[in-house]
Structure formats: structure tokens, C-alpha cells
Amino acid sequence: MVRLIMGLKGTGKTKTLVELVHKAVEEESGDVICIEKEKVLTFDIPYQARLIHAGDYGINSVELLRGFISGLAAGNYDISHVFVDNLFKIIGDVPEDELTQLCKWLDDFGEKESITFTITVSADPKLYGEGIKKYL
Length: 136
Known about the structure:
The chain has one domain (2-133): Rossmann fold, CATH 3.40.50.300. The protein has helices at residues 13-27, 62-75, 87-91, 96-113, 130-133; strands spanning 2-7, 31-36, 50-53, 79-84, 116-122. The chain has five helices and five strands.
């Protein structure tokens, strides 16, 4: 399952994500992963969740993110939830069709691996079509 939290800058997306990470740590039996670009959420995310700074790994494209997530799952069979804060800050702005393809891949991958994905995206949801809106 993939859930996008989309909105313009300053609309509370990261705050919502932090609350969801806390809830996931309390309620889910698997490992919770949170990926962010830089070291911003260090004191907001509970220590039980694995906080990964994407900038440390040079993740800057959809393909690298897919490979990184695949590697995480290959090395840890107990992941139940992956959170990604500010996707476009990590991989850069991508066209709608590429974002749709990423969401579809994450949905299929999550189904196969029993992983839920929650991703924040700084963009106006009104500008996106049905391919993206089904994940909101």
C-alpha cells in the first residue's frame, strides 16, 4: 500500500508524517524506517524507528531510490512500514508520469514484501491527475 501526503510547503505534511511514525512504532510489529534528505527529524522520530539520511547515500533519482528500498528489504525481512519525507527534496522534481510509475512500483513491491509506504510530497495535489490522486 502507498499513501501520499501531498500539499504545498507549510501545510503540515512533515508533522503528519512524524505523528504517523510514532503511531506505527507503537502499533506495528515490524521494523519502521524513515527516509529523509538531511538530518532534520533526528529528535522528532522515536529511536525505535530507523532514520536514514538519503543525502549520505547519494540518492538523487527514482532509480536510485528504488534500488535503495530494494536493498533495505533484501537486508531486513521484518520491515513493515517505510516513510519518506519530502520525496522531491530527495530525488528532485519529477514529471507526473514518473511519480505515478514510482507509486505503482512501490505499491506492487509493498504488496509482495508486505511493506506499507507513506510519502510526503511538496506539490499542489490539484495539479495532478487520477494516477496520483488514488494514492492520496
